[in-house]
Amino acid sequence: MPDSMTQLTQELIVEQKGSVALLTLNRPEALNALSHPLMDQMGEALKNFEANSAIRVVVIAGSERVFAAGADISEMQGKTSAEMRADPHLSRWDMVSNFPKPTIAAISGYALGGGLELALACDLRVASETAVFAQPEISIGVIPGAGGTVRLARLLGRALALEMVLTGRRISAHEALSLGMVNRVVPVELFLDEAIKWAHQISAMPPLAAAAAKKSVLSALNPDYPSYPAALKLERELFYSLFDTEDQKEGMQAFTQKRKPEFKGK
Ligand code: DAK
Q1: What CATH class has 207-256?
Q2: Atom of ligand 1 at shortest distance to CA of 135?
């Protein structure tokens, strides 16, 4: 897709801004509820971005009013558990957390239920001062099903995670910042610009090193990863492997020559 070309779809707007892809949730009438078509489109877009070396960072944003009010309740309400388990659309939700390149959520307004889970599946979070975070699923008879209980437990610890998922309590942007749920909070008119600016900063880094950094941090947090020493060993191996890249040579050479590096992603 050429620079700045916008592909308008029904529920997701896909844009490319240089080496940064911007995915904007676009269902204002349903507060950006994450419907099957929307998540299918997101899965398709991420598959394309993974294969496209020109894309180095992905930003997922909502509008000023709402990031997302969760998965689409009207799609789920009549389902049995067997139907939910067999639903192929739901597997799309793992595409974000499995995406190998850095991802940033740009959040303003409500990030509720699956909306918060989508934000938590991203690597970094920029929030506007109006952002509101909650896992209200218990009040509609379920629990978070897309990583909310697990990611919040790891991020916030047992007591706060349980408080959120047992009561649905809302967390403000500033509280989220103090808890480490978001990386930064900015005035509402700046949240998207800030996320895109940050994405451009990261996209200027050598992409193979960025992918290795992400892989190593996520392995350290993965309970299935064999052990702490194994995670340290993986980090060491990833470090060594980068010495076969042109970008490592360029980065270190540019440093010694006191010039700006030009990374090629090789
Ligand atoms: N789904 C469908 N429609 C929604 C919606 C949602 N989550 N949230 C809002 N809407 C719709 C409303 O029905 C309403 O539509 P109309 O009546 O105008 O047709 C419109 O958006 C405006 O909403 P309200 O009239 O309610 O607006 P208010 O300002 O009064 O209230 C609100 C805003 C965000 C507080 C309220 O809309 C609200 O409480 N929304 C629901 C929040 C919620 O319970 N979210 C959790 C949903 S369950 C999984 C993947 C994902 C998930 C689980 C598993 N797997 C991969 C296995 C996720 C589950 C969930 O997210």
Answers
A1: mainly alpha
A2: 46
Residues in contact with ligand 1 (CB, 6 Å cut-off): 30-31, 33, 69-74, 90, 93, 110, 112-114, 136-137, 140, 145-146
Is 204 among the catalytic positions? no
List, for residues 142-151, the tens digit of each pLDDT value.
Answer: 999 999 999 9
Domain 6-203 falls under CATH 3.90.226.10: yes
For the chain, domain boundaries? 6-203, 207-256
Residue 83 annotated in active site: no
Q: Does the active-site annotation cover 29?
A: no
20-25/171-172 β-pairing: unpaired
Q: Is the pLDDT of residue 1 over 50?
A: no
- Does the pTM surpass 0.85? The reply is yes
